[in-house]
Amino acid sequence: MSDDIVLQTKGLKKHFPITRGIVFQSKVGAVQAVDGVDLELKRGETLGIVGESGCGKSTLARLLVGLETPTSGSINVRGQDMTKLRGSELRRARRNIQMVLQDPYTSLNPRMTVGDIIGEPFEIHTDVAPKSDRKRRVRDLLDLVGLNPDHINRYPHQFSGGQRQRIGIARALALRPEIIVCDEPVSALDVSIQAQVINLLEQLQDELGLSYIFIAHDLSVVRHIADRVSVMYLGRVVETGRDLEIYEQPTHPYTQALLSAVPVPDPTLRGHRDQIVLEGDVPSPANPPSGCRFRTRCWKAQQKCADEDPMLTLRPKSAHPSACHFAEVRDVVHAVD
Ligand SMILES: Nc1ncnc2c1ncn2[C@@H]1O[C@H](COP(=O)(O)OP(=O)(O)OP(=O)(O)O)[C@@H](O)[C@H]1O
Ligand code: SF4
Ligand SMILES: [Mg+2]
């Protein structure tokens, strides 16, 4: 693992068992929520992860921060495999990777003051800051995220949605992590507030040298902040590349369909796009299709797609990795002069 890679996963899987029976539960299947994800995150970089509801984004996020145990695969943070660490070693390594959640309304305990919420990580990791210094640190964190340090004794309901998300970000920063996993951090906010929170995240990234995994269900939110993007479908990454490669030269049919559904803010581009309407529902992750998981909704599907599982790799007509046997660029949103 090279020095500038702060996080790397290999073959990461999370299968949730499906059981039957009340007293003697027997396993009758598994929900393949995350099924073999390889990703790399460089220092100071933002990797966007996009995909429809249920494709495994939150499960992946929870695996990365240690809230779920992988079924198999590895999670390397600065060269240490988190899946092999135990006890105090694991606790110390986990400090380095923190999470910001989607819903600032439900993710903050309404009965705790903001000071106690942001300072809670210091109670768990007692060696990070001496007790006498914690209040000052919390005030500094409030200031860092653009909130008034004098509001340290207020409760979450006394803040707006955007301010509550700032509280969530301050809390994630308390242990001075290098990596932050943001799971739909702006999806619950008004559009005008979304931009402010994204700007704050970018500013903090520059100031503190943070690396982000930034999860969203649509490509337009990720476009502003991500350096690279991975597109997920049914527990797997189907295409990955630099942001322009994904937006301007998508080669996987699923990415092309997602892009065709993204609202285009530039009026000159409106009406100059392919409309790709996906047929059918997302199959159940408990019973995914054979071969390519996208084949039941893909207009290019052929027999090979049912017989052979396409790996995420460079393809003859794709300059970046794509998990499609027939990957080729399709210009979904056309620019006009
Ligand atoms: N604890 C669990 N037990 C069983 N199945 C689960 C569990 N957590 C998630 N799943 C299933 O795993 C799949 C992936 O869920 P996940 O929440 O990771 O998707 P997501 O991409 O974050 O979706 P959304 O965009 O709606 O947040 C879904 O089918 C979900 O029902
Ligand atoms: S492998 Fe086949 S089914 Fe899958 S995306 Fe490519 S063409 Fe479609
Ligand atoms: Mg989710």
Protein structure class: alpha/beta
Radius of gyration: 21 Å
Succession of helices and strands? EEEHEEHEHHHEHEHEEHHHEE
Measure the end-to-end span: 44 Å
Count of DSSP H/I helices = 10
Provide the list of bound ligands, each named once: adenosine-5'-triphosphate, iron/sulfur cluster, magnesium ion
Which CATH class is shown? Alpha Beta
Instruction: Domain count, please report it.
Output: 1
Number of strands: 12
Strand content: 15-25%
What strand line-up does the widest sheet have? 6-7-8-3-9-10
Organism: Catenuloplanes indicus
GO molecular function, one term: ATP binding
Pfam families: ABC_tran (PF00005), oligo_HPY (PF08352)
Protein name: Oligopeptide transport system ATP-binding protein
